Amino acid sequence: MTDPWVALEAGGDALRRGGVLRRAYEQFATAGRVESAVRPVVAESWRRCARASVAPEGRASVELGDDELAVYRDGHPLSRVMPVIRELMGVYAVDGEHLVAVCDAQARLLWVEGHPQTRRRAGRMNFVEGARWAESVAGTNAPGTAIAVDRPVQVFAAEHFRRPVQEWTCAAAPVHDPHSGRLLGAVDITGGDRLAHPHSLAFVGAVARAAESQLALLAPRPPGDTVRLTALGRDEALLMAEGRTVRLSRRHSEIVVVLARHPEGLSGEELLLELYEDEHITPVTLRAELSRLRGLLGSALLRSRPYRLAVPVDADFDAVARRVASGAVAAALGGYAGPLLPASQAPGVLRLRERLADQLRTALISRADPGLLAEWAYSPWGEDDLPVWQALASALPEGRRPAAEARARALDAEYAAAMPPRRRTAL
User: Fold this and answer.
1) Does residue 427 register a pLDDT over 50?
2) Taking a C-beta distance cutoff of 8 angstroms, is the pair 188, 146 a contact?
3) Strands 153-156 and 169-176
4) Is residue 380 part of a domain?
5) Which of 16, 168, 187, 193 has the smallest CB count inside 10 Å?
6) Same domain for 58 and 197?
């Protein structure tokens, strides 16, 4: 195989390759051993699925009901490029009896369109709008794996981790925000063996690039009276203002996040308390940082007496908090790219980071949706979150609980061992 991302080279024998893959899959399912015939991208995906305790049988779960789905996808950035995706792929899908699917960054299917009979067949495995096809819950598949590895990928026949999906072939490519580079989701084409060809992977990759180009044309630059701030899951925030994107230093990121949370402004003394653990830091140090930040952003954006941002800020962490408050838990989790400025120790940032994570975690536990809980538990920030692992173990079907229960017990033991002896005795 010359291209590791292509499932079957031009002229390849789909029937023979399918037989090889079925035998390799059963070998992995029974003995946990991956044969050399399996592409590395698929082998690595199988191992991730096994670690996540994905059952070889079963169907994807529908996470977004009709009402929540309609609201969520109408506000999703990819809704603006659906006309382009339909124009490029619609006729091809219908004529070839294929499906076109578009998912978000959590691999939830937002649109599934194409040949009616193929849609009915796919519906039997819950390849439907609102269903989540992330690897961690649905096994190896093109949209889920493309999201996991962040590049175009093709999945053929028994390369799929779940047996009910192994009669299908799919190719998917991720779509990114053209300004920030943030992963928005993926575009996918799904059908039969005829899609097991390099052309389908190249085609879906071209559609994804066209969608990104269209987003660049359609996405309005932040107007002069609005600033966009991206600070979740990154130590250096991105600030988009006046048609330009600025990557802030870690200290400047903390200043802008704190000021974004206090639009009324803060005095120098108040800002010192929000930013520095060390009480010996002098106002001179803060004024020097603010002077450098003003030089970067411009005096029209950063004001003093009190220190404040002169225009409203559209911050990603505020958007997540609003979604949690409104009960749109899946949408909130979809916008949560990770902890707020994760390396920051600024007191004001620490409080905001912990409050947002606690609000979202509490909402997830209350919702008790195994797919949403698994998304948090298997994330870098959730892998040691005991309450979420316990909730996941309770929410999973009985046959899929052992791995989550084992992880919860291990974390419980670790926390008990780390507890001071006097407190352990009191308990």
Assistant:
1) no
2) yes
3) antiparallel
4) yes
5) 16
6) yes
Asked if residue 356 and residue 325 are part of one domain, the reply reads yes
Q: Is residue 369, in this structure, part of any structural domain at all?
A: yes
Query: What is the average per-residue pLDDT within 91-105?
Result: 88
Please name which of 271, 263, 277 lies closest in space to residue 229, comparing C-alpha atoms: 263
CATH number where 24 lies? 3.30.450.40
Domain that holds residue 172: 14-218
Residue after which a domain boundary falls, among 294, 314, 334: 314
User: Is residue 67 domain-shared with residue 126, that is, in the same domain?
Assistant: yes
Q: Which of 167-176, 379-388, 415-424 has the lowest mean pLDDT?
A: 415-424
Q: Cα(394)–Cα(384) distance, rounded to whole angstroms?
A: 17
Q: What is the pTM of this model?
A: 0.59
pLDDT for position 1: 47
Same structural domain for residues 132 and 149? yes
**Do 341 and 298 belong to one domain?**
no
40 and 179 belong to one structural domain: yes
Task: Report the C-alpha gap between 356 and 156 in whole angstroms.
Answer: 40
Q: Do 173 and 24 reside in the same domain of the chain?
A: yes
How many domains, in total, are found in the chain?
Answer: 3
Residues 237 and 384 in one domain: no
In a domain, 336, yes or no: yes
Unique residue bearing structure tokens 């799929």: 160
Give pLDDT, residue 206: 93
* Chain Cα centroid distance, residue 329: 14
pLDDT in tens, 292-323: 988 888 777 888 888 888 888 889 998 888 88
* Residue 151 in domain: yes
pLDDT in tens, 235-284: 999 998 777 788 999 999 999 999 998 888 888 788 888 888 766 677 78
